C-alpha cells in the first residue's frame, strides 16, 4: 500500500511503494564494465545504474549535481549520457581528487612527458632533505611505513610536484597524485583488502619496492584514463566544479540544476563505512588538518542531543530508543543531517528537475530503518512528487554486507542485500 503524508498546507502527497526491477541489479557487471575506477574508494555506485536512470527518466542533458560525490561515479553516468556540466561536493579531499581526475582532460602526450620527467626528477634526489616536514604530517608514521619507503615516497612526491611546475600544468596533479596515493597506501603496512586502518601481520618483513609499485600504478591508471576517460572527455567541452565542502548554496552561489544524482552515506561513518579512515594517509600527506577527525564530521558523525521525532522515521527511532537511548541519539543525528541537506538542496533544482538517491536501508538493533522512505518524504514536503522507488539487489557493492547490527561481537546478520533508488520530480 502507498503511504500518504500530509504537509503544512493540507495537501496530501503520496509516497509510493517500492518496485523491484531486476534490470537495475547488474548482477554480472562490475564497476570496470563501464569505466574502471582510477582509485579505490569505499561504497562506490555502479555508473551503469546512474546511466540507466538518466535514460529511463529522460533526464535533461544539461547539468548534474552530486552533493555526496565520493569518487565521482554519478559524473561518469552523466558523461556517458551526454551531460557536460557537473557540480560536486564531498568533505573528503581524496574523493574530490578522484572526481577531479575523472573529469580533467589531459592529452596523452602530456601524460607521457610527465612520466619521463618524474623519473628524471627522481635522479636529482639529493635536493630533498629526509627531514622534510611532510613526513611528520602522518600521525605515527613509523608505525605505518618503514624508513626507506618514507624517503622514497618523499622523493616521488617532490618529483611529481616539480614535474607539474615544469610543465606548468596543474590539472596533471589530479592524476599524478592519485598514482601517488595508491602507492602510499600499498607501501604502508595497512592491510590492503580493508577499508579501515589495520596493520598487517608480519609487517617487519614487508619491504616494498616503492618505485616499482609507483611505476605499476602509474601505468595502470594512465591506461584506464587514456582508454576509457580521455576519449569521452574530448567529445565535448566539460565544465565542472568539485567543492571540498558540504553542500552550501549560499556560500557558493551555484546555478540551478536539472538533475541530482547521488548515493549518500547509509549512516554515520563510525558504524557504517569509514570514508575518512580509508583516506587518512593521503589526506594527512596533503596537509589536511584533523584528517583523523573526518569521519566524525561526515553526515551523522556527531551525536545528537535530542531524538529525531517527526515523520515516518519517528516510530523506528522510538523502537531503537527502547533498546538503547545512545543508539537512538546517534541515529537521530544522521536523520537531522540528511533532512538539513535535502532542505538545502531543494531550491537549487529547476521545475521538472529530477532527483535520484541511491541508498541502503541499514539495520540497527535488528530494526531496518526506511531511509528510502525518509528521503521521499522530505522531498515531497518540499515541492516534489515521488515518482517511484526502485529496489535492486546488491551483490557487487564494495562494502561490508554483513556486520553486527547489535554491536555484539560474534552476532552477525545480513544488513543490506537490497538497495533503493528514490526518484522524485520538482513540480513547482
Ligand atoms: C556512498 S559515498 C558516495 C560514493 C560515490 N557515489 C561513488 O561512487 O564513489 C558517500 C560520500 O559522502 C561523503 N559525505 C558524507 N557526509 C558528507 C557531508 N556532510 N557533505 C559532503 N559529503 C559527505 C563521504 O565522504 C562519501 O564520499
**Protein structure class:** alpha/beta
Largest sheet: 5 strands, mixed
The largest sheet has its strands arranged as 3-11-14-8-7
CATH topology of the largest domain: the name is: Rossmann fold
N-to-C span: 26 Å
> Given this structure, which CATH class of the largest domain is correct?
Alpha Beta
Dominant shape: globular
Q: How much β-strand is present in the residues?
A: 15-25%
Tell me about this structure:
This protein is an alpha/beta fold. It has two domains: 3-105 and 234-426, Rossmann fold (3-Layer(aba) Sandwich), CATH 3.40.50.150; 108-232, no CATH class. The chain has helices at residues 47-56, 73-81, 93-103, 108-123, 134-137, 141-144, 147-166, 171-187, 210-233, 249-252, 275-278, 280-285, 294-297, 314-323, 325-345, 371-380; strands at 3-7, 11-15, 18-20, 63-66, 85-89, 239-243, 257-262, 349-359, 363-364, 367-368, 384-393, 402-403, 413-414, 418-426. The strands form five sheets. It has a five-stranded mixed β-sheet with strand order 3-11-14-8-7, covered by helices on one side. Strand 9 (363-364) and strand 10 (367-368) form a beta hairpin. The longest helix is centred in the middle third of the chain and has 24 residues, at 210-233. The structure holds S-adenosylmethionine (SAM). The site of S-adenosylmethionine has 21 residues, from helix 2.
Amino acid at each position: 500500500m502507498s503511504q500518504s503524508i500530509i504537509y503544512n498546507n493540507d495537501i496530501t502527497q503520496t509516497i509510493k511503494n517500492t518496485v523491484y526491477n531486476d534490470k537495475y541489479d547488474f548482477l554480472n557487471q562490475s564497476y570496470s564494465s563501464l569505466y574502471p575506477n582510477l582509485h579505490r574508494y569505499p561504497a562506490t555506485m555502479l555508473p551503469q545504474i546512474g546511466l540507466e536512470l538518466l535514460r529511463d527518466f529522460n533526464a535533461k542533458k544539461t547539468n548534474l549535481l552530486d552533493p555526496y560525490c565520493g569518487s565521482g561515479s554519478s559524473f561518469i553516468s552523466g558523461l556517458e549520457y551526454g551531460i557536460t556540466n557537473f557540480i560536486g561536493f564531498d568533505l573528503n579531499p581524496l574523493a574530490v581528487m578522484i572526481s577531479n581526475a575523472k573529469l580533467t582532460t589531459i592529452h596523452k602526450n602530456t601524460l607521457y612527458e610527465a612520466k619521463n620527467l618524474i623519473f628524471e626528477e627522481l635522479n636529482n634526489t639529493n635536493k630533498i632533505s629526509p627531514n622534510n616536514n611532510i613526513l611528520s604530517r602522518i600521525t605515527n608514521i613509523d608505525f605505518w611505513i618503514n624508513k626507506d619507503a618514507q624517503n622514497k615516497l618523499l622523493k616521488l612526491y617532490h618529483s611529481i610536484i616539480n614535474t607539474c611546475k615544469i610543465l606548468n600544468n596543474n590539472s596533471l596533479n589530479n592524476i599524478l597524485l592519485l598514482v601517488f596515493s595508491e602507492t602510499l597506501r600499498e607501501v604502508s603496512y595497512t592491510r590492503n583488502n580493508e577499508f579501515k586502518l589495520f596493520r598487517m601481520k608480519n609487517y617487519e618483513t614487508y619491504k616494498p619496492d616503492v618505485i616499482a609499485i609507483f611505476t605499476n600504478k602509474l601505468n595502470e591508471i594512465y591506461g584506464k584514463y587514456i582508454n576509457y576517460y580521455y576519449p569521452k572527455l574530448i567529445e565535448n567541452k566539460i565544465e565542472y566544479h568539485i567543492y571540498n565542502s558540504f553542500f552550501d548554496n549560499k556560500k557558493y552561489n551555484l546555478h540551478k540544476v536539472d538533475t541530482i544524482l547521488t548515493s549518500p552515506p547509509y549512516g554515520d561513518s563510525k558504524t557504517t563505512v569509514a570514508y575518512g579512515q580509508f583516506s587518512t594517509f593521503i589526506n594527512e600527506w596533503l596537509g589536511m588538518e584533523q584528517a583523523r577527525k573526518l569521519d566524525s564530521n561526515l553526515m551523522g558523525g556527531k551525536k545528537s542531543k535530542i531524538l529525531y521525532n517527526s515523520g515516518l522515521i519517528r516510530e523506528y527511532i522510538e523502537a531503537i530508543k527502547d533498546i538503547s537511548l545512545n543508539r537512538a541519539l546517534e541515529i537521530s543525528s544522521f536523520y537531522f543531517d540528511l533532512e538539513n541537506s535535502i532542505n538545502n538542496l531543494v531550491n537549487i533544482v529547476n521545475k521538472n528537475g529530477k532527483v535520484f538517491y541511491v541508498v541502503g536501508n541499514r539495520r540497527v538493533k535488528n530494526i531496518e530503518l526506511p531511509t528510502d522512505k525518509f528521503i521521499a518524504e522530505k522531498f515531497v514536503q518540499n515541492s516534489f512528487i515521488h515518482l517511484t522507488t526502485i529496489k535492486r539487489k546488491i551483490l557487487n557493492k564494495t562494502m561490508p554486507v554483513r556486520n553486527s547490527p547489535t554491536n555484539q561481537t560474534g552476532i552477525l546478520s545480513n544488513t543490506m542485500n537490497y538497495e533503493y533508488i528514490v526518484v522524485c520530480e520538482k513540480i513547482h
